[in-house]
Design a protein that fits this description.
The complex is a heterodimer of chains A (about 350) and B (about 800). With about 350 residues, chain A is of the alpha+beta class. Chain A has helices at about 1-20, 20-35, 40-45, 55-90, 110-125, 135-140, 175-180, 225-240, 290-295, 315-320, 330, 335-340, and strands spanning about 125-130, 135, 160, 165, 190-195, 210-220, 245-250, 255-265, 280-290, 305-315. Chain B has 18 helices and 43 strands. The chains are: A alpha+beta (about 350), B alpha+beta (about 800). At the A-B interface, helix 5, strand 1, strand 2, strand 3 and strand 5 of A face helix 2, helix 7, helix 10, helix 12 and helix 13 of B.
């Protein structure tokens, strides 16, 4: 009996080895381990054996069955792995084909610049304030220390919509509005982005509509050296930590002392090149200490309060930052232009 | 303002300071040097030559063959100028010289005769043609006898000068003169100023006996002074003076006119010379012009004047338009012998208006407009008299005939050291501050705790303490002011709720694939009528528009956004999705300012998604635009209360436009452009939306709490109903919601079908309805009941039938 079992094992293992697929393998299982298979038969005939032989043969029969089953399992695993490999290889795709891309749009470069500048100043404790684009000349000029006969108030240079209202020529009137609303109580820390209008013919460097950002910092004990500090921080943040500023005396009716702020040229690093007209510096904004008349007219005591104000051209910042050479690009909205600003 | 470096040295010692250093100094001191001109750059080999012999060219009528002594050599040079045959000392460009315009001079042959170089005219040396005097045009330069043969001709002519172009700020009228600039350099360099010579001789005759001055309106003419210079000889002014005028951008005329201009450039005080004998009377009367009065100005133009103009008259007719231009009738001409020299102060606003109206902005009017040194007027007249005596052979009559008073400008401003340091953030001490004030030429009186500073009359711009602080700062050096940070109490900076929402809307639209555009606020009257959300009878108009295209303020963003669509279309950018956010302007009767409302608009054309290897192109349609609007409103927190209804709007397709309503109020519209309108405007098929942004920017709900996740499963039922094609999907949806009761969580329309297997005029709508009870699991029976109610309700209300 024992020999018969041993024989069956070898026979079955050989059949497993020679099976070609899962189906043949299954047949081998049925043939040897099935209910009608030879091992079952052996077990069924155990009743005829003696009490001594019975456990020995039973153990051997189980061993043989397990060994055959193990062979089948291993062969089964082999077939499954082969099948999986075949399936995976059949499913291979060209991963270099383009994906189902989600096509995002883009911010307008002027908006991008405004937001970048807003974020820096918000970080410095400023609030963002806006004002109307059609403005009283009281706020646009008078409260900014530009009296009635001032050359800048010429009808020829502004778009008036009535005798005393006009499309604002600067964002400065927001200074006056904000100061008056603060009723003589500081601190006032604001920046005011917005559209402004002047009667210029549109060309590569002029636009009858453009954008400015005005800023104002009024409190007790504000010094001109603070203006320098704030702009040193701003310029490093906006243009890069390797940039430096230079203040030059200038003139604005609403500041005294006044300063033009230059940034060292990013192209040549300050050595002088075509971009900076060999000077090594690029003018970026106008600033100064708020004129005492402006404080006084707008309800602040100039003996107690002082402050600085500044104004910058958004187009100029965008042109400097992105090397744009024609201001009209900002207003024709050519998508070949706009789509370049996706990542800014 | 053009400042000659060489001329500047008449007034301040510049030894050891290069033109570049002067430029840097001025720029840092507040007189911004915009450009440094070196007209002579690269011009080597231009020398003084003497024509020793000359004769006609045998084969060319108009050419002269000149033998020219160049010092160490003699050359034959052919010259075409008409003054060549009689010229003596001339300017010669030797072979190898590169003249302006990259003109290389070579030894050559002209009609068989050799020519070794070129005898030059002024414009050939880089002097702009409009700065060459009429007489000099097309002529070679004839140098005076003292020019040394063989020496550098550019140096002799002063053409080796460096000219600094200063971009003056409007407050610094004092720097509209060589002396004014010199005063600044003197302060910046701490070197003394040298004042020009004015001591002239005087004949015994008194000017007062020869002319009278009457000023009719004192406000217009605070001061009028006249000097008389007899027996002048009109001739070209000395070459050095001509070249200085040229450097300053003025064209030489003759000695008398040149001297008045020279003194103006030197001192900043404009002067005018009349021909005394042709003045028409012996009385000078200044008054306002009569309306319609005419006069012929120096440029031979007949000018019609009005009551706003100040005129100088001879008691009868105008002889000059005050501060702007003289009259032709008594212009200084070749035969002029006696000069009436005007040195006056005119009202700056009047001069500005007249100059502007007549389009006669000149060096003179500019200076009057900006304001003059109150005490420099008579000085300038004396300086001109001195020069007229010296260079025009004139005899200066005794005295000056005056009317009005020279305004006494004695500005005194108090200043404390504490104020300087607190305002600037510096730590200047008393001594260095005083030194700066002295350098500026200011008077300093110590009052113990402060100073009393007296301001020279040339500095009209200094009136208050802050002006003085700026003066101190700019001489001390802005770059020496320390860098500090404000010491105010800290507080968080922020964007307002509205600003945050606007940014959110922008991010959504960008993320959704739209590109942001910015267009002009001004538009044409015709366009402004389009796409108005509300009907307003009027526009906000610009009083003096620059063009028809930019005449009124927009009431809709779309009008200009569509311009961007066609601009792109014309450049073959066909797949477009643009949005704009900005203000529109509505008339606000009874108020000074119009209402400014914030709008959001979008425009789409071409493909929404492009064709790719795995999909076909998807063109934009109504639902692209609507989907964007739906998503945007959801982003802004407007989930409920948003409805859409069929709209009739001009310029929009009647079958494809909807109004957008929030809580029953129309806040905007969506639609396809009316095909007729699109065709007329050259626009492609375009879908648009415009929303009144203000209505969408609601206060963010800070109390928002999340909805706990359901503990019981939701149940989904799908069904399709057939209804009349005319019935709006929103109606069906509305009925479903109503009928479904409290358990309905979501109703999704997943299919719309018309066509085969359906009766004509019918459509099938397929819905997926999700039910949820937060408290327990719903049983099938309950759902079946609700479902039945829905179907019944659809049937009774809309005549719908369940599609089997």
């Amino acid at each position: 009996m024992i020999d018969r079992l041993e024989e069956l094992k070898l026979e079955a293992q050989s059949a497993v080895t020679s099976s070609q697929d899962k189906k043949e393998l299954e047949q081998v299982r049925i043939n040897y381990l099935g209910k009608k298979g030879p091992i079952t038969e052996v077990l069924r005939g155990m009743g005829k054996l003696s009490a001594e032989e019975r456990p020995v043969v039973g153990q051997k029969a189980n061993e043989v069955r397990e060994a055959i089953q193990a062979s089948i399992d291993s062969k089964q695993a082999f077939f499954e792995e082969a099948e999986l490999q075949e399936k995976l290889s059949a499913e291979k795709i060209d991963v270099t084909l383009p994906g189902k891309k989600v096509e995002a749009g883009s911010p307008h470069p002027l908006t991008a610049v405004v937001e970048q500048i807003e974020d820096i100043f918000v970080g410095l404790g400023f609030e963002v304030t806006e004002g109307p684009e059609v403005e009283l000349d009281y706020y646009n000029f008078e409260m900014m220390n530009l009296p009635a006969d001032h050359p800048a108030r010429d009808m020829q240079d502004s778009f008036y919509v009535s005798e005393d209202t006009l499309l604002r020529t600067q964002t400065s009137p927001v200074q006056a509005r904000t100061l008056q609303a603060a009723k003589g109580e500081g601190p006032v820390r604001i920046i005011c982005p917005g559209k402004v209008y002047r009667r210029d013919e549109d060309d590569a460097t002029h636009s009858h509509q453009f954008m400015q950002i005005e800023g104002l910092y009024v409190d007790k004990h504000v010094r001109m050296s603070d203006l320098k500090g704030v702009f040193d921080t701003f310029v490093k943040e906006y243009f890069g930590s390797d940039r430096a500023i230079r203040l030059r005396p200038s003139y604005f009716p609403f500041t005294e002392p006044s300063a033009e702020i230059d940034v060292n040229c990013g192209v040549c690093g300050g050595d002088g090149c075509r971009v900076c007209k060999q000077s090594g510096w690029i003018e970026v904004l106008g600033s100064g200490m708020v004129h005492p008349r402006v404080l006084e007219m707008n309800g602040f005591d100039p003996d107690v309060y002082s402050g600085f104000a500044f104004g910058m051209g958004v187009e100029r910042f965008a042109m400097l930052k992105y090397g744009i050479d024609d201001i009209r690009h900002f207003y024709t909205n050519d998508t070949r232009f706009l789509s370049q600003f996706k990542h800014v | 303002m053009l400042v000659s470096y060489q001329w500047l040295q008449d007034y301040v010692d510049l030894s050891g300071v290069s033109p570049e250093e002067v430029a840097e100094l001025l720029t840092r001191g507040g007189l911004e040097v915009d450009h440094i001109h070196r007209y002579h750059d690269g011009m080597d080999g231009v020398v003084v030559g003497k024509i020793t012999d000359s004769g006609p060219h045998p084969d060319a009528d108009k050419l002269t063959i000149c033998q020219v002594d160049l010092g160490n050599q003699s050359s034959q040079i052919i010259c075409g100028a008409t003054n060549a045959p009689k010229a003596s000392k001339v300017v010669v460009a030797k072979p190898g010289t590169v003249l302006p315009g990259n003109r290389v001079i070579e030894a050559t042959e002209i009609r068989g005769q050799k020519s070794e170089g070129m005898i030059c005219a002024l414009d050939e040396l880089g002097v702009s043609e409009n700065l060459v005097s009429k007489e000099q045009q097309d002529l070679i330069i004839e140098l005076p006898d003292d020019a040394e043969v063989g020496s550098d001709a550019l140096e002799y002519l002063g053409l080796n000068d460096v000219v600094l172009e200063i971009d003056l700020t409007p407050n610094r009228s004092d720097a509209l003169s060589m002396l004014g600039v010199a005063y600044d350099i003197s302060a910046l360099l701490d070197r003394p100023i040298k004042v020009p010579e004015i001591e002239h001789g005087a004949v015994r005759k008194n000017a007062i006996d020869q002319v009278s001055v009457t000023v009719e309106a004192g406000v217009d003419v605070p001061y009028y002074g006249a000097k008389i210079i007899n027996k002048v000889t009109i001739a070209p002014s000395p070459l050095w003076m001509q070249m200085r005028l040229v450097a300053a951008g003025m064209r030489p005329v003759n000695n008398v006119v040149d001297i008045t201009n020279y003194v103006m450039l030197e001192t900043g005080q404009p002067l005018h010379a009349f021909d005394y004998d042709r003045f028409g009377s012996k009385e000078i009367v200044t008054r306002r012009a009569y309306a319609g009065e005419t006069m012929t100005t120096l440029d031979e133009q007949v000018r019609t004047l009005n009551e706003e103009d100040i005129v100088i008259t001879n008691g009868h007719t105008p002889t000059a338009l005050a501060g702007v231009m003289g009259g032709a009738s008594c212009e200084v001409i070749e035969t002029t012998e006696n000069i009436l020299l005007e040195a006056a102060q005119f009202d700056s606003v009047r001069v500005r208006n007249t100059a502007k109206r007549t389009n006669l902005r000149s060096e003179s009017s500019t200076r009057f407009e900006k304001g003059l040194d109150a005490q420099g007027t008579v000085q300038a007249a004396e300086r001109a008299a001195y020069l007229l005596e010296k260079y025009a052979g004139g005899a200066v009559l005794n005295g000056i005939v005056e009317s009005g008073e020279m305004p006494v400008f004695e500005q005194e401003v108090e200043l404390s050291l504490g104020a300087v340091n607190t305002r600037l953030g510096t730590e200047l001490d008393q001594k260095e501050t005083e030194e700066i004030l002295y350098r500026l030429g200011f008077g300093v009186e110590d009052l113990g705790d402060r100073w009393r500073i007296s301001i020279p009359s040339r500095r009209l711009d200094i009136n208050i303490q802050e002006d003085l602080i700026e003066e101190i700062a700019r001489i001390y050096g802005y770059d020496r002011i320390p860098t500090t940070y404000p010491v105010s109490e800290r507080s968080a900076g922020r964007l307002s709720n509205t600003q945050k929402l606007k940014r959110k809307a922008r991010r959504f639209l960008e993320g959704a694939g739209l590109e942001e555009a910015i267009t002009y606020s001004l538009t044409s009257e015709e366009k402004s009528k389009r796409f108005r959300l509300d009907e307003f009878s009027d526009d906000v108009r610009v009083l003096m528009p620059m063009s028809e295209e930019r005449k009124v303020l927009r009431q809709s963003l779309l009008l200009q956004l569509l311009d961007s669509i066609s601009y792109n279309k014309n450049r073959q950018n066909n797949d477009l999705a643009l949005f704009e956010m900005g203000a529109v302007f509505l008339p606000n009767p009874g108020e000074k300012l119009p209402s400014e409302l914030w709008h959001i608009a979008g425009a789409f054309s071409g493909n929404w998604t492009a064709a790719a290897w795995n999909k076909t192109a998807e063109p934009v349609d109504f639902y692209t635009a609507k989907g964007i609007v739906e998503g945007l409103l959801e982003q802004l927190g407007l989930n409920e209360g948003v409805t859409y209804r069929v709209a009739k709007r001009e310029q929009l397709h009647p079958g494809q436009s909807a109004d957008v309503l929030v809580n029953g109020q129309v806040v905007g519209f969506i639609g396809q452009l009316h095909p007729t309108f699109a065709t007329r405007e050259g626009l492609p098929v375009t879908y648009v939306f415009e929303l009144r942004g203000e209505a969408l920017l609601t206060e963010q709900d800070k109390t928002m709490r999340y909805d706990p996740l359901p503990r019981f499963p939701a149940i989904k039922r799908d069904f399709a109903v057939v209804v009349d094609a005319q019935i709006a999907a929103s109606e069906v949806q509305h009925v479903i919601y109503e009928a479904a009761g409290a358990w309905v969580k979501d109703v999704t329309l997943f299919d719309v079908y018309e066509g085969e297997h359906l009766e004509p005029g019918k459509k099938s709508l397929a819905y997926s309805v999700t039910f949820l009870n937060k408290e327990r699991t719903l049983v099938d029976e309950e759902i079946a009941n609700v479902h039945e109610t829905i179907v019944e309700r659809l049937q009774s209300k809309l005549g719908a039938s369940l599609r089997g």
